[in-house]
Write a structure and sequence with these properties.
180 residues, alpha+beta, two-stranded antiparallel ribbon, two-stranded antiparallel sheet, 15% strand
Length: 180
């Protein structure tokens, strides 16, 4: 066991016996500075429970910005015209010995160019993917946004009151989810 620990650069952090006078349950790490405290407590069987407190935090990865095509705002008639020209200029006018690979690359290139010219794009970024954001919380946030939109549209006190009450409720469940 000592050879395995040394081979993988592991340090054994538990120095308390976990069964009678033997250390059978281990806590091993490659970075001992992250281990705050290791303790042993009575368990349900003849082994003691090893509890390790580590100084780590969950890594949050931000999604890279990406381009999204807005097809609903696109000029589909212009794309259709471009594809008609492609048929006339490339496919029908191609020499008989033209390879399928060449024709495919020409089609793909022209279609991509047509899409870039005729369909607007926007950049979108992802939000932080936090572990406490559950489906229920996301649903409540969308509901809050709908209430806000309605309150702005109608201007009624009743709608504003509903929006504020749900906003307060979401704030409390977010805090509770984060703390748990």
């Amino acid at each position: 066991m000592i050879d395995v620990l040394q081979e993988h650069n592991l340090t054994q952090m538990n120095h308390n016996p976990t069964r009678m006078d033997n250390i059978l349950d281990l806590t091993c790490t490659t970075n001992p500075d992250l281990v705050k405290h290791v303790s042993v407590h009575p368990g349900m069987s003849d082994h003691m429970v090893v509890i390790s407190e580590l100084d780590i935090s969950a890594k949050q990865t931000k999604k890279q910005p990406r381009e999204v095509l807005l097809y609903k705002k696109g000029n589909m008639a212009a794309i259709t015209d471009d594809m008609d020209k492609l048929l006339d200029e490339v496919i029908l006018a191609a020499p008989p010995d033209a390879s399928v690979e060449h024709l495919w690359n020409e089609f793909k290139h022209r279609l991509t160019d047509s899409i870039k010219r005729n369909i607007p794009q926007k950049m979108v970024t992802g939000r932080w993917d936090v572990p406490w954001m559950t489906k229920l919380i996301k649903r409540k946030i969308r509901q809050k946004q709908r209430l806000y939109n309605r309150a702005r549209k109608t201007g009624k006190d009743k709608d504003w009151h509903r929006f504020r009450a749900l906003r307060k409720h979401i704030k409390s469940i977010l805090k509770e989810a984060h703390d748990n």
